[in-house]
Design brief:
about 250 residues; alpha/beta; 9 helices; 7 strands; binds guanosine-5'-diphosphate; binds magnesium ion
Length: about 250
């Protein structure tokens, strides 16, 4: 791609890849390089937004410096309060694409699926495309038992009380139509942003599809997910959806 093409894509991309990051300085360079290979290989018209939440490490500095080398990269500094939900919403507000893909900053997501996501959202008109770890047994072998238990319970409750048959409601790696998601009035600040997007899209009649895939393991940095802190958010999103469902 020549210089002119790159600046045109930056103004008007198809895909906005949103990466919420808190203390991911060890992972950012490798992730950006992997996305660079994918974008070039498939000639994707993509921008990449790193949304930093006042990290205690050099996440923002790393991202800021890498902008010089990678024309598609935008390092965004979001103010407090912290939270992955706040960061994804901030990314949605600043995206210039037709669709967005949420990618974790810890290198666990199978990013090759971005190409399939593009087909589903832009060509086939789905509003939401989810990566599902529960379509094939080999894809959920490596999920820790406690996570599996909570995810199964959440899915079961959503199925019987809301009527949604999707297998992987809560995995954050997903793609959506940006105009669609902007009118959902998202409110989550934490990890419950993922089921909020899934349940609101379902209840408002947006088409959802699932693509089979497997999540990797974090090698560097630390997980920020704490069930004791995030559990109430998941419950709130669920109960709000049950109430919305009862009204229709
Ligand atoms: N901007 C921002 N990103 C966050 C926050 N909490 C987690 N993340 C990012 O969200 C992604 C997933 O978080 P992680 O801690 O790996 O959660 P886990 O995979 O459920 O253990 C990573 O890229 C984190 O850096 C936050 O408060 N703000
Ligand atoms: Mg993780």
């Amino acid at each position: 791609m020549d210089e002119k093409n790159i600046s045109e894509i930056n103004r008007n991309p198809d895909i906005s890849i949103i990466i919420p990051c808190l203390n991911e300085e060890q992972n950012i360079p490798q992730l950006v390089n992997k996305l660079d290979s994918l974008i070039r290989h498939h000639a994707l018209a993509a921008e990449v937004l790193i949304v930093d939440d006042c990290s205690d490490d050099y996440t923002f500095r790393e991202s800021f410096i890498m902008q010089k080398e990678f024309g598609f990269l935008r390092a965004l500094h979001k103010g407090l309060p912290r939270g992955i939900g706040h960061a994804i919403r901030y990314g949605i507000d600043h995206s210039r694409g037709k669709m967005a893909v949420v990618v974790m900053g810890d290198l666990v997501d199978p990013i090759a699926a971005i190409v399939d996501f593009q087909k589903k959202i832009i060509e086939e008109g789905y509003k939401l495309a989810l990566l599902s770890r529960y379509l094939a047994p080999e894809d959920h072998k490596n999920i820790p038992l406690s996570y599996k238990f909570y995810q199964w319970g959440y899915r079961f409750l959503c199925r019987i009380l809301i009527g949604i048959k999707i297998k992987d409601i809560t995995y954050a790696f997903r793609a959506f139509d940006l105009d669609w998601v902007r009118q959902l009035k998202l409110e989550s600040g934490g990890f419950e942003i993922s089921p909020e997007i899934t349940l609101k899209t379902f209840l408002k009649g947006g088409r959802i599809c699932e693509i089979k895939g497997r999540q990797g393991r974090r090698i560097q940095g630390e997980s920020k997910f704490l069930f004791s802190r995030e559990g109430s958010g998941y419950a709130r999103v669920f109960f709000k959806a049950v109430i919305l469902r009862a009204r229709y």
